Amino acid sequence: xxxxxxxxxxxxxxxxxxxxxxxxxxxxxxxxxxxxxxxxxxxxxxxxxxxxxxxxxxxxxxxxxxxxxxxxxxxxxxxxxxxxxxxxxxxxxxxxxxxxxxxxxxxxxxxxxxxxxxxxxxxxxxxxxxxxxxxxxxxxxxxxxxxxxxxxxxxxxxxxxxxxxxxxxxxxxxxxxxxxxxxxxxxxxxxxxxxxxxxxxxxxxxxxxxxxxxxxxxxxxxxxxxxxxxxxxxxxxxxxxxxxxxxxxxxxxxxxx
Length: 257
What we know:
about 260 residues; Rossmann fold; about 25% strand; seven-stranded parallel sheet
């Protein structure tokens, strides 16, 4: 089983986001970086499949040279090789990202044969883009299922389940090769071991310079949404506050009056 996992370098979830003065970029000076949580599950699922069925896992990202760190993290948990589509730091929109990934996949498959499975995270943690997997699947003329939280492979087919609107599950059966985007909760990603990190550090990363082309979309600027306000109410001190606490619990419905 030959599997490709496409990941994205994003600011660490939970970090405070600050924009540059011109409002065009996120100020990353004080931010750590990681892989989108959905994509962590995609890497873990690929590694598990290869451990069970044999084959190899390739991880790919499009981003600056610093994204090498995220590729090595993926290799530390079991990915066999990595490809960096190294950019000059400019932001690729979903159209340009999908096109660059498609070009890389076609080149890799021409040299090494087709991937049985191409995995994405359902959407990026920073921009919320969810369309790259679909664009890649359409360009490669392969079936695609998005938002999956259960995956089984058997007899050249993928059996996928995803949560349906309003409750319940939707089940899909698609032939391989296929493109799938997975959601957090598909599995519990493992932590890289020290030996795994040492092996990943020694592995080579294939570097490719992707082609960027203007496609008609223009970023006007970024805007941070207003933060939710917080309110603190001091109910008292010591035993004297007990009655006030009980009144509050009754008021919010935690205990019956």
